[in-house]
Specification:
The protein has 21 helices and five strands. It is mainly alpha-helical and about 600 residues long. InterPro entries: SusD_RagB_dom, TPR-like_helical_dom_sf.
Length: about 600
């Protein structure tokens, strides 16, 4: 089964200077407007190549050291996005998670995610692609690619800002649309779904696309994701007064199509390694679970310094939280509060026993996922470098093992590292389908068996049975405390499965936002149970600070009152400069006085 891979293609001279995303910055579009351009399929393909580099970024490029605005995490967004959530704690706490974001004040026009440079590129294509005498069946493939990217771009903007301007053409400095108010969310999202449907119609079937280019299944995957997000966002954000059923139906329909397309959960039968190994590969060409991935090449100088810096815990110097670790079930399918198999929390070694195998394949037990002897950061593995030890800090003691690629040769390649980046994977589709069907009131045991239980089967976890859903009063209490509602037990377990399976794949923030569960960020950030004998040189009360139960509190000094949540954080603010430039823009609620 042939899978899609993305190779970064550089179109020398095609769009020189297009890295500046400030909307008011004019791109040198005249470089591609001569009478000879837009005439051939090659012209259309070359133009779209730059869009692939912008939207399908994987682990990014080169040193991969920049941060993503407005979130503040590293540009390798898939593995690092969770550092602003309740799944992870970076050494320097996330200002977004702590309700201290002020990028709209400190940044200029076009900052904080309010950037429109790539949208200008997309609309420039739409304004010009018909100029040549290219066969409609050929040119429409590239039209489908552009529609896919435009839908993805607008989806990301709606997640950040809610209402955003809808632009259909390239704007000039005197265009009236520059001074228009924001387009209502309902209109934007309807347009996004229409774009995706058109893209699905134009893109080739899987296997018929040119090497390295997207196909229908990729667009169906995005439709599944967007439909679930928007449908549930509208349901739980009742203040919007919007109906989300059509989006949930669209998500379920797209998911169902992919469930009938021949994909499956990757497994070799090794329940203790398969989940971890899925995220540590040079290639996904023959992997039945990966729908979209990005390939890197040292020979073409098209690599990225990800494997080295992630393995050595340099980026964000982060650790997982106790809140995430406690959410993993025991191997009998019961929560830790109920299971007789749970061995307690007196040490990380104890709490790892008899747990969902994904826990030890996501979070390092002491001594596991070791770097090569002598490598920078090698001392992170026997014991994590908690505060009080030298080296790059893991502030909670729960060092993340997911994405650890045990290939010293790849670490040595630095910016030419070749660890492949999975972008869309089939497990998400199964989880999307289960949740969408629940929200539509159409869930059945057969659907649970097709989705949740197939995901669990990779690690041989007990099947979820609708007639015997385990109680979890601790998690229910968390919902009541931090979410103002308690989901039905089956929905609680669907959400748990999503959190565990997709941990450190940049889903948690979006999930909390769409469930109107942002207040979960107020749950105290805790780490491992501190055992003095394991860290004889670390001084309690000076190097580390502990809770009453003895858990490490990484933010005890810098956030003594903990993180706070404000409902304004469900959307980010528009930069003040842009509000001045366009008086018809209105600031998002709660940010007006900042």
């Amino acid at each position: 089964m042939k899978k899609l891979y993305i190779v970064l293609t550089v179109c020398a001279g095609l769009l020189a200077g297009s890295c500046n995303d400030d909307f008011m910055e004019r791109y040198p579009l005249d470089e591609v407007t001569d009478e000879n351009f837009w005439q051939t399929e090659q012209d259309l393909e070359l133009y779209c190549n730059d869009l692939y580099a912008q939207y399908i970024r994987g682990f990014s490029y080169g040193w991969g050291q920049n941060n993503v605005s407005p979130y503040g995490y590293n540009e390798a967004t898939i593995p690092y996005g969770d550092v602003i959530t309740d799944n992870a704690a970076p050494d320097s706490y996330s200002r977004v998670a702590a309700n201290e974001y002020n990028g709209h004040v400190t940044g200029g026009s076009g900052s904080g995610g309010w950037s429109w440079g790539n949208m200008r590129k997309l609309n420039y294509f739409l304004d010009n692609y018909l100029r040549g005498d290219v066969d409609p069946d050929v040119r429409n493939v590239y039209l489908g690619e552009v529609m896919f990217f435009k839908a993805w771009d607008y989806y990301e903007k709606v997640k950040i800002f809610g209402d955003v301007p809808w632009y259909t053409h390239v704007l000039e400095t005197n265009s009236e649309e520059l001074y228009a108010p924001r387009t209502p969310r309902v209109e934007v999202m309807d347009s996004v779904m229409k774009l995706l449907d058109e893209a699905i119609g134009y893109l080739p079937e899987k296997g018929a696309q040119k090497p390295g280019r997207i196909h229908k299944d990729v667009a169906l995957h995005l439709k599944s994701r967007i439909g679930l997000f928007e449908g549930t966002y509208r349901k739980y954000h009742t203040e919007l007064g919007l109906e989300g059923t059509a989006f949930l139906e669209a998500s379920a329909d797209a998911s169902e199509k992919l469930m009938n397309a021949g994909y499956s959960i990757y497994t070799t039968g090794n329940i203790n390694e398969d989940y971890h190994n899925l995220f540590a590969q040079y290639s996904y060409a023959d992997n039945p679970e990966i729908i979209l991935w990005k390939e890197y090449s040292a020979n073409e100088n098209l690599g990225v310094a990800f494997s080295r810096y992630y393995a050595q815990n340099l980026r964000h110097r982060h650790g997982a939280t106790r809140a995430l670790v406690d959410s993993y079930l025991c191997i009998d399918g019961q929560p830790i509060a109920n299971s007789p198999l749970f061995q307690g929390k007196d040490s990380i070694q104890q709490e790892m026993l008899n747990r969902d195998p994904r826990l030890r394949q996501t979070i390092c037990n002491f001594g596991e996922y070791a770097l090569a002897e002598g490598a920078m950061g090698a001392d992170n593995a026997p014991l994590p470098n908690i505060p009080g030890l030298s080296g790059n800090k893991c502030p909670t003691g729960y060092r993340v093992g997911k994405w650890f690629f045990n290939e010293p040769d790849d670490w040595g390649r630095l910016t030419n590292g070749m660890q492949a980046a999975p972008v869309f994977r089939y497990a998400e589709i199964l989880l999307n389908y289960a949740e969408a069907k629940y929200e539509l009131g159409q869930l059945s045991q057969d659907i649970i068996d097709q989705t949740i239980n197939r995901v669990r089967s990779r690690v041989n976890m007990p099947a979820l049975n609708l007639g015997n859903i385990p109680a979890d009063p601790a998690l229910d209490n968390d919902y009541a405390t931090y979410c103002d509602y308690v989901p039905e037990p089956v929905l609680r377990e669907i959400r748990r499965e999503r959190r565990v399976e997709l941990a450190f794949e940049n889903f948690r923030w979006d999930d909390l936002m769409r469930w109107k569960a942002g207040k979960f960020l107020e749950k105290p950030v805790e780490g491992i149970k501190f055992v003095q004998e394991q860290f004889p040189g670390v001084v309690v009360g000076a190097d580390v600070f502990l809770s009453g139960e003895g858990y490490i509190l990484p933010y005890y000094q810098v956030l003594p009152e903990g993180r706070t949540w404000d409902d304004r954080q469900y959307l980010f603010p528009i930069p003040i400069e842009d509000l001045v430039l366009n008086p018809n823009l209105e600031q998002n609620p709660g940010w007006e006085s900042n």
